[in-house]
Design brief:
6-stranded mixed sheet, about 20% helix, globular, 5 helices, about 210 residues, 14 strands, Rossmann fold
């Protein structure tokens, strides 16, 4: 499967790359015809810092950010974004803010939750939502609902890759989009053409990676 991988460079910074693998893949919400591997951007410090610089630039002149909520293992990128937005001398409205960086937990019902000791970092705060990869938008919707439940105000959405441009009236600022992968498609399992052609699933994919189906 890895032999089919190709690299795509970010339009704004050619040093940032992701790998894409064509095939038949199943996520929790849908079936997709590409696996988008952003492991390097999430877990290599230099790539994460470059990604953060590009994403932070999208929010420098907008609403101040008090808290960044990181989904899909994007914590390192979130920490670098916080540094970019809060450093002295930047044009950010968040300059000198002590920006909090949080990741939700999940309870036994699969609901996103924050512990009592961190809820004050969301209540009444301007919150930037950071997603590693957005395909159907369901994770973004759940995250925005969670932010609202804990009394936060979502002021922006950032992603490494996003197949959607807007959610709940907020633009999704991403480093890579379907313009970089024009034949990218996502389907509900019942409408998946590969399933109808009885083509086997190559791998189960999630924000953590993939597991091949032998």
């Amino acid at each position: 499967m890895e032999s089919r991988a190709t690299k795509i460079k970010a339009k704004k910074n050619g040093k940032l790359t992701i790998s894409v693998i064509p095939g038949h893949f199943a996520t929790n919400h849908s079936h997709v015809n590409y696996y988008i591997d952003i492991t390097g951007v999430k877990h290599h410090s230099k790539a994460a810092q470059l990604a953060a610089q590009e994403l932070a630039a999208q929010f420098s002149g907008s609403t101040p950010v008090d808290t960044i909520i990181c989904m899909d293992g994007s914590d390192m990128i979130g920490g670098f974004i916080a540094r970019e937005l809060s450093q002295s001398g930047s044009r950010s409205l968040s300059t000198d803010n002590d920006i909090c960086v949080l990741t939700p937990e999940y309870n036994s019902n699969g609901q996103m939750v924050f512990r009592d000791n961190t809820q004050s970092m969301i209540w009444g705060k301007n919150v930037l939502l950071l997603i590693a990869s957005a395909t159907t938008g369901k994770t973004i919707n759940r995250s925005l609902d969670c932010i609202a439940y804990y009394g936060g105000k979502a002021v922006g959405i950032a992603a490494v890759f996003s197949a959607i441009d807007e959610m709940a009236g907020l633009p999704v600022h991403s480093l890579f989009t379907i313009a970089d992968l024009p034949d990218y498609q996502t389907f509900s399992p019942k409408d998946c053409p590969s399933c109808k052609q009885q083509r086997k699933i190559d791998a189960i994919v999630s924000s953590s990676g993939y597991t091949k189906i032998e």
